[in-house]
Amino acid sequence: MLTPVIESYLETIFNLTMEGDLVIAARLAEHFHVKPPTVSETLRRMVEHGYVVITGRRVISLTPLGQELAEAGLRRHRLLERFLSETLGLDWITSHEEAHRLEHDLSEDVEERIRKLLGDPETCPHGNPIPAPGRSPADFLRVRHAFRLSRTTAGQSVEVVCISEIVEDETALLRLLGSNRLFPETCLAIVENDGHRVHAIAHSAPIQLETDVTDKIWVRAVDPTN
């Protein structure tokens, strides 16, 4: 049975895999703030239903069915975020939180009406891909040559691609980035990266971000002369 908890696990496993991280039970326990036995029991049920497989090294991967369900859940969530922000004018924090509450009960008919109303958007307000036929979210970062802001070097010019959804306190991160106007398509000139924080110029103003934040921001290199 696909419960909201299992659906959240599927989406998190999908996002971790998309960002190139190995998915293990300890990472899920950390993300959901639950004890390891709770994760083990949830994973046991997911294996029984054919949603995931676990290798001998305890690495967790989605099955084709699990992938399909994860993409369906992410599509509902990210379409709702777009609808709530663009149509109702909610900020990107509130739209994210409300989408979490609404996504599990959204019907296919309403989902399709929202998609058409919005013109079949490709990304959510945070820049993450909205799954759709012919679009592969799994390849989203690779085809854009995206990398983490924490891996930039002095002198680089980059543009924000998306904000990671693998965050323990998403609201705090979104509030910080919003206060600094670091939205998708924002350009930054990297001044220094000392391994602990990134010093950059954004919107003609200096900004400093700690590594735990820059790890969650995906960027791509751009030509500063364009």
Please outline the helices and strands:
Elements: H1 4-18, H2 25-32, H3 36-48, E1 52-54, E2 60-62, H4 64-87, H5 92-102, H6 108-118, H7 140-143, E3 147-148, E4 157-163, H8 170-179, E5 187-193, E6 197-202, E7 205-210, H9 211-214, E8 217-221
Antiparallel strand pairs: 1-2, 3-8, 4-5, 4-8, 5-6, 6-7
Characterise this structure.
The chain contains nine helices and eight strands. It is of the alpha+beta class and 226 residues long. The chain folds into three domains: 4-66, Winged helix-like DNA-binding domain superfamily/Winged helix DNA-binding domain (Arc Repressor Mutant, subunit A), CATH 1.10.10.10; 75-137, Orthogonal Bundle (Arc Repressor Mutant, subunit A); 147-221, Ferrous iron transport protein A (FeoA) (SH3 type barrels). The strands form two sheets. It has a six-stranded antiparallel β-sheet. Strands 1-2 form a two-stranded antiparallel ribbon. Helix 2 (25-32) packs across helix 3 (36-48) and helix 4 (64-87) packs across helix 5.
